[in-house]
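User: Hey, quick favor. My workstation is busy. Could you predict this chain's structure for me?
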Amino acid sequence: MVAKKNLCVLILAGGQGTRMKSALPKVLHKICGAPLISHILREVSLLNPAGIGILTGHKSDFVKETIKENLSAWGITAPVEFMVQKNLTGSGTAVKDSLPFIKKYDQVLILAGDAPLITADVLQKLIDNHNTKQPACTVLSVIQPNPFGYGRIVKNEKGLFKEIVEEAHTDAKTAAIKEVNSGIYIFEVAPLTKALDKLTPQGPKQEYYLTDTLAMFDKTEVLSEQDYICAMGINSKAQLAQAQALMQERINKKHLDNGVIIINPSATYISAQAKIGQDTIIYPNTFIEGKTTIGQNCIVEPSCWITNSTILDNCHIKSGSYVEESELAANCQIGPYAHLRPKSVLKEKVKTGNFIEIKNSVIGEGSKVPHLTYIGDCQMGKNVNVGAGSITCNYDGKNKHQTIIGDNVFVGSNTNFVAPVKVADNAKIAAGSTITQDIPEGVLAIARNRQVNLDRKGKK
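Assistant: No problem, here it is.
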């Protein structure tokens, strides 16, 4: 790897994206569970740049605040600065509006905020090539089977860069060129600054094209990348769906190569941030979103939804289960049709059955919550057995309260815990009880009326 200079990254994210036909700014549309710009930020962060700048324009404040609020969730630790494009007259003025940020550095890597399939490996090749050949600019080109709509890379008789011709200005000869501009460049900042001052408006919209600066330099290099998909821009909902499929295929292949078993990759949806261990089996129609980690030798049955959760080795997530912002220790089983809401923590060898809901609770090692039960705001000990239909009544209409259940407690079916309440170790609770008072250690608690059998005349 060639040593780099003081390098910054500029992401152009000011476009309205009218062809998206949406009130949502284009760069905030999602693929694989995260906005387009988040994928770009994650890849450029791997380059360890000295700074990252984002130029906003359309709905600037909304875009800025959304990105700032989610940087940590996206795993972005590099410092990010924001600028606003004041004059919406092309890519040249966009970069010119970014000069107060750019001028603090020697080099700038410029890319669009709607091209989420770019990778750090391709960008690093571009940087290394630029630093080896030392031009004023290096542009990344790709060979497009269908180049319509792209700026064509025109070279001279020696095969060196001559100019970029935009689609609107092509003739029959240049229109046939399949080597096109990816919209990704690395510039030396000093000559770029001078060239921006020389730009003149072009075309029917009288726009200032950043591409026009490349022909002004004594030396401009072209690095051709064979994988044209990496430079794919998103301009419509159809292209958004296409990019989703391409990125998901790339993500799933990475997991397959790492030893994960994905039964049907075309029907399995895994986020770019997810980590999955070897020999884990993922069945179809499953969504694994956000910063989810799944250990080795797990089984995730069909139609599960797991987001921002940690699941350790040898866990079994049965069909139709929903796991959100929760933690499962090793050897747990949940479902089918279990719902773990945020801040649910299952210790080792916990078993939960079908149609249970757990929220903001810790379930101790070896405990069982078999089915048809709601556990909320609860601290549960080891080896507890909770009968069907039991509920922690944690909300009094104004505040939430905790239920604390000790080790080795047996809870009969249809038990209601009216929180706050504590159950000590080794206690037993009779089925159908409503527990409103603390239960001492080792006792049997019965909180129900004695059964009375009456005949048809109301007599015992």
